[in-house]
Structure to design on (347 residues):
């Protein structure tokens, strides 16, 4: 006698739940995956970029795989290779060393993955898009701001990392502004060097040496970013020169805005980096879908003319903190004023 098989029944509601669950898993598996390789998550700056990038990509239905190479070129290369194996469709690359990063672009191209060079331009490689700010304009802004305050005297130049092509671009732009003053003998550059990894500690030591060699006779410190400006200001404080020497910066870090309110830093350059990160995310999704990027120009990286999106930087001084970084929500008045005594707070 053959026994009839017992038929298992599943309630219709449960069946639909299970089916919807399978569909959801399938949809998640089909999400566009974008890799965001960050050379090092040090300081306030890159954390803001990553968070803004991930949030915008998520809004557009993409999933972001991000990594922190901690300033190690080989580690960044390995992280990129891992991303490629994981199936990313687009690589957004913030390189540690712009001259060595071409191998990561090559690896991506071999995997048929598009590459966006983020904030720093990868040199001599087949990059699909560059998203950044006009560094020539930033360098000019920094130097022009200082010569308005200090048109004569001894200058100290603290450039960024020698491994970053952007640091050289900034330095050259700064010098284009200073050169006529130098030629007329009105400004003398007494110290000028690139700084390992943009480290504030290196800028501090460099400024101490410059102060000693000039016997305290310094008119301005042209620091290429806020971290190094902070190191220089610490050295100036130790010689009772803070507030007496004009100091430039870049990035509109909270600590720099506090120094500007105190009068120990002259200016910073605000780059609407939330918009930069969001724009990069939008273009990454566009490329992942096989669409062309919305570039507004090109820039040569030594091998090809790379389509580029160059966003506009803004000079920030004590007078316009409220109408720039605070108005945009990049920093809050409360955070700035918390670090200031009552008589120095921004009203």
């Amino acid at each position: 006698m053959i026994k009839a098989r017992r038929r298992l029944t599943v309630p219709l509601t449960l069946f639909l739940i299970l089916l919807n669950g399978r569909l959801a898993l399938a949809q998640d598996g089909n999400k566009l995956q974008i890799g965001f390789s960050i050379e090092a998550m040090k300081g306030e700056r890159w954390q803001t970029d990553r968070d803004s990038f991930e949030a915008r990509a998520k809004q557009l239905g993409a999933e972001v795989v991000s990594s922190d190479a901690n300033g190690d070129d080989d580690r960044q290369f390995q992280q990129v290779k891992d991303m490629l194996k994981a199936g990313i469709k687009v690589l957004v690359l913030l390189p540690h060393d712009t001259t060595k990063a071409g191998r990561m672009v090559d690896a991506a191209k071999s995997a048929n993955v598009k590459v966006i060079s983020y904030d720093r331009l990868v040199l001599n490689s087949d990059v699909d898009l560059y998203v950044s700010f006009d560094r020539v304009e930033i360098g000019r802004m920094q130097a022009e701001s200082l010569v308005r305050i200090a048109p004569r005297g001894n200058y100290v130049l603290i450039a960024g990392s020698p491994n970053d092509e952007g640091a050289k671009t900034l330095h050259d732009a700064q010098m284009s502004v200073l050169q006529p003053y130098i030629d007329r003998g009105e400004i003398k550059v007494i110290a000028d060097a690139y700084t390992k990894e943009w480290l504030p500690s290196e800028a501090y030591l460099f400024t101490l040496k410059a102060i000693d060699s000039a016997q305290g006779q310094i008119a301005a410190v042209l620091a290429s970013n806020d971290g190094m400006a902070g190191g220089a200001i610490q050295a100036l404080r130790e010689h009772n020169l803070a507030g007496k020497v004009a100091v430039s910066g870049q990035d509109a870090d909270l600590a720099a805005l506090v120094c500007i309110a105190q009068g120990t830093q002259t200016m910073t350059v605000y780059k609407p980096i939330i918009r930069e990160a969001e724009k990069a995310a939008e273009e990454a999704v566009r490329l992942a879908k096989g669409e062309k990027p919305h570039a507004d120009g090109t820039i040569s990286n030594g091998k090809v003319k790379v389509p580029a999106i160059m966003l506009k930087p803004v000079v920030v001084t004590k007078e316009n903190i409220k109408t720039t970084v605070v108005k945009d929500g990049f920093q809050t008045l409360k955070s700035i004023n918390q670090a200031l005594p009552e008589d120095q707070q921004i009203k």
Observations:
- The domain at 13-17+23-127+273-312 is CATH 3.40.50.2300 (Rossmann fold).
- Residues 39 and 178 are 32 Å apart (CA to CA).
